[in-house]
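Title: Request for sanity check on DUF3105 domain-containing protein prediction

Description:
We are preparing a figure and want to confirm that the structure record we downloaded matches what your pipeline produces today. Could someone re-run it with the sequence below and paste the raw structure tokens into this thread? We only need the token string, no images.
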Amino acid sequence: MSKTSKKAATEARRAKIEEARRAERARERRNRIITVTVSALIVVGLVGWGAYAINDADKKEDQQAAAAKKPVQGEKSWDAKKLGRNHVQQKVKYPMNPPVGGDHNQAWMTCDGTVYTKPVANENAVHSLEHGAVWVTYNDKAADAEVKTLADKVSKTPYTLMSPDRTQSGAIMLSAWGHQLSVDKASDPRVEQFLTKYVQGAQTPEPGAACTNGLTAS
């Protein structure tokens, strides 16, 4: 091969290599542009989703806060500031039955979803209310099936206790610190509303205080 032919072949290879390099650089630029664009879209999407999630969470919190301020239909309320919180040894004469607060015994009734088959002392149960428990009571007007349904619900709900009270006026009554509801049936939707609102609710004088290791009925 002549020198001229060799030189022409060399130049052709160089041109081909340079063309390949230009094509490779062009592909790399396109890939970088695609990567950056996709990443930007992902970030925008995540930011948008995050903003939506935050707004949705804020909306739910606002709804829950509004529900927490709204009383359960038919409930009675007492001024918590007028309910004593002293520890006493003697029996207390409460102005409502079952009591929803006031001076009480220093020992609380265990209220970790605890179902008692015998009456419990008011003074001990009120101390449980102070810890944020809801006390469910019933009398002879409540059918056995209703009592069983209530017992099943209470046993699955921490910070609750249940016991019979033949002296109360309503068939089924739910008491929290400063609040009380009377219903005829366990299936009444207000039962769940009351539990949701007042188990460790905003009314609790001592939120987070123990409901375990208290007294238990004999």
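Thanks, this matches our download. Residues 1-70 form one domain.
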